[in-house]
Design goal:
Structural class: alpha/beta
Number of helices: 15
Shape: globular
Oligomer: single chain
Radius of gyration: 23 Å
Helix content: 25-40%
Strand content: 15-25%
Strand order of the largest sheet: 1-5-4-2-3-6
Mean pLDDT: 93
CATH architecture of the largest domain: 3-Layer(aba) Sandwich
Distance between the termini: 32 Å
Low-confidence stretches: none
Number of strands: 18
Largest sheet: 6 strands, mixed
CATH superfamily of the largest domain: Alpha-D-Glucose-1,6-Bisphosphate, subunit A, domain 3
Length: about 450
């Protein structure tokens, strides 16, 4: 993987790390790579609500058009909507201008293929190579056509409605759109489902996306649900590919608990294909224990939704996700979808006639402690070769006696080693975490 594209597209501070010139080159280079064996090429483009969206969107679209490819502009719309509409509109791929849960000064460019999946590493590398060697006058002698699709929000929300078989009028719901990409779709969607809902943080001004709002600042929604005596709350992030929830008492229902709720419901209705839930190595131990109790296979991947999806595709599993609320329902979507996730949980509430608190109680969340140790790049990359450290970690694992776990891993982006412990006694696991870090410090100094 090169320097331009990370694990979720190109991302950076607008004006310094991500410029309109770079967006134009990414658009042109993507069109050139994707058009290689096609006579006509049509790509979709959508964005969240950041102030920089128009400059980047129009520059990127201009690059695509300059290569003789066509653009269908979807306007402000969630990331998963672009992924879905690529197939509905028979497009050849698409772009999302978004930096997800990051502050407004950031933005990013995600690219999807003709099947609505995030672009493979090898294609990103080809695009990056063209971006780096870009010549402004090296274009084809034609330009593509631009079209703004006014039906995009209706087409997407109609599809979401079709994924459940009930309306939602029996539940009082609070929704926090984080002043982001779902600020229009959420209202349209929940009106179509006859829901009794209230929306907060739904007036984007270009700068307030994710600002004390949405899934990264749940305390706002928690208070709102309690103060307004609602049954539950739903929080999205800036591009609405994540969903976290709170029950009527303001308790967090995170991605792990959502997996447990929906996985259990699917199994009870003989719909949990291949009897498995996919999580990551950072999934709470409580989810693992829940799966053991319910007779469900739990598959753990590396951290990152692309690895979760990869496992699901390889093994034909239908549900997987991360604690952060990035949940994939493979039968309905090709990527994490916050609004789809919320509907699946609400559908379970309607059909079981159980509160969100009662449904979430099927899984006990184990306390977690996560601490970072700053190290040299050499020690970050080779700490596993240190016998003293690895023996001590194994000794600590034995102390937990199966009622907890230790995960030590190197950061992929910083010179840090992350030490995470889970167990029933927060004080005990905190002490073990501190002891492991102390042993590492002695070995590294």
């Amino acid at each position: 993987m090169g320097k331009l594209f990370g694990t979720d597209g190109a991302r950076g501070i607008v004006g310094s790390e991500l410029t309109v010139s770079l967006a134009m080159r990414i658009g042109a280079s993507t069109a050139k790579v994707m058009k290689k064996n096609k006579k006509d090429l049509t790509l979709l483009i959508g964005s969240d609500t950041r102030i920089s969206k128009d400059a980047l969107r129009l520059s990127l679209a201009g690059g695509v058009l300059s290569e003789g490819a066509n653009i269908i502009d979807l306007g402000v719309i969630p990331t998963p909507a672009v992924a879905y509409l690529i197939k509905k509109y028979h497009a050849d791929g698409g772009f999302v201008i978004s930096a997800s849960h990051n502050p407004s000064e950031y933005n990013g460019i995600k690219i999807f293929n003709e099947n609505g999946y995030k672009l493979a590493d090898e294609l990103e590398e080809k695009i990056e190579s063209l971006v780096n060697s870009f010549k402004e006058n090296d274009h084809v002698n034609e330009v593509g056509m631009y079209h703004f699709e006014e039906k995009a929000i209706d087409d997407y929300t109609d599809y979401l409605v079709s994924t459940i078989n009930s309306d939602l009028k029996g539940i009082k719901i609070g929704i926090d759109t984080a002043n982001g990409a779902s600020y229009k779709t959420a209202e349209v969607l929940f009106n179509k489902l006859n829901a009794n809902f209230k929306i907060i943080n739904n007036e984007p001004d270009g700068y307030n996306i994710n600002l004390n709002a949405g899934s990264t600042h749940l305390e706002v929604l928690q208070k709102y649900v309690i103060d307004n005596h609602l049954d539950c709350g739903i929080a999205f992030d800036g591009d609405a590919d994540r969903c976290l929830m709170v029950d009527n008492e303001g308790n967090l229902v995170d991605g792990d608990k959502i997996l447990a709720i929906c996985g259990k419901y699917l199994k009870e209705h003989k719909s949990l294909k291949n009897n498995a839930i996919v999580g990551t190595v950072m999934s709470n131990l409580g989810l693992v224990k829940f799966c053991e109790k319910e007779g469900i296979n739990f598959e753990a991947t590396k951290v990152g939704d692309r690895y979760v999806l990869q496992n699901m595709l390889q093994n034909d599993y239908i549900i997987g996700g991360e604690q952060c609320g990035h949940i994939i329902f493979k039968e309905f979507a090709t990527t994490g979808d916050g609004e789809l996730t919320a509907l699946q949980v609400l559908n379970v509430m309607i059909h079981t006639k159980k509160s969100l608190k009662e449904l979430a109680s099927v899984m006990e969340t184990y306390p977690q402690v996560l601490k970072n140790l700053k190290v040299s790049k050499e020690n970050r990359d080779h700490y596993q070769e240190n016998k003293v450290i690895m023996d001590y970690i194994e000794e600590c694992n034995k102390k937990l006696n199966g009622e907890g776990r230790i995960l030590v891993r190197a950061s992929g982006t910083e010179n840090l080693i992350r030490v995470m412990l889970e167990g029933k006694d927060i004080d005990y696991i905190t002490q073990i975490c501190d002891d492991i870090i102390e042993v590492m410090q002695k070995e590294f100094n």
